[in-house]
Amino acid sequence: MKNIFLGILFFTCSLGFSQTQMTAGEVTTFKREIANQADKTTSITADFEETKHVSVLKNASKASGIFRFKGEKLLWQYNAPKKNAMLFNKDNLKIKNEKGKVTSIDLNKNKRFKQLQQLMVGSYTGNLFDEKSFNITYFKNGTTRFAVLKPKSKDMSKHIKEVTLTFLNNEDTVSEIKIVESSNDYSLIKLKNKKLNTALGDNVFQL
Fold first, then answer.
1. What is the CATH number of the domain that holds 56?
2. Domain that holds residue 23
3. Residue 16: pLDDT over 60
4. pLDDT of residue 126
């Protein structure tokens, strides 16, 4: 469950010297564009590739799967090298492990996964940048824009050091996510073949 939690956060490359911090005006424009896109977005589908770097391991581990988002429903499903999934639906989270066992979690009673839901869903609804749960710094590099989020709560800080959301080519939806753990191990998730506003039936969001 821990690996899924760290892997889902679920969406970049490390900040380099060529990147510059956005001005206050640029931040305002950026946040407005993200919110405007969210208002027009009814669904998102994508494939994803995840690379996890752990300091004690010589080689990074890799995984892939599918991502689906619609309304209050968010599915993050790993297909390789093992099959498992997380499905958020309003105040409920279902986790399916590689053996097919499904566990249900009441998000109102689990603060950690509730914060995870807010992070993931907020990335696509435009509600991420309220800065209630994170200290956020904004950067740019050509047509690529970055939002670096550092958790304010001590509970989340025990697990997550920072999350970088990358918006490529002036797009207004997330394309890459980098999650740095408190140990400085990190996961890099890239969304591929991203499509907006495709028809998604309820059967898509079933484990």
1. 2.50.20.10
2. 2-205
3. no
4. 58
Cα–Cα distance, 162 to 186 (Å, whole number): 10
pTM equals: 0.82
**Which token pair is 140?**
């740019």
Give the H/E segment covering residue 104. strand 102-106
**In 10 A of CB 82, how many CB atoms?**
12
**How far apart are alpha carbons 37 and 22 in whole angstroms?**
20
pLDDT, tens digit, 9 for 90 and up, residues 22-39: 999 999 999 899 888 888
Please name which of 177, 77, 85, 161 lies closest in space to residue 122, comparing C-alpha atoms.
Answer: 177
Q: Starting from the edge strand earliest in sequence, which strands make up the sheet with 176-181, in order?
A: 20-21, 134-141, 144-151, 160-167, 176-181, 186-196, 43-53, 61-70, 73-80, 84-89, 92-96, 102-106
CA pair distance 152, 134, nearest whole angstrom: 5
Number of domains into which the chain is organized: 1
Per-residue confidence (pLDDT) for residue 151, from 0 to 100 = 87
Q: From residue 60, how far is each of 16, 98, 114 by CA, in Å? A: 21, 20, 28
Cβ atoms of 105 and 95 within 8 Å: the answer is yes
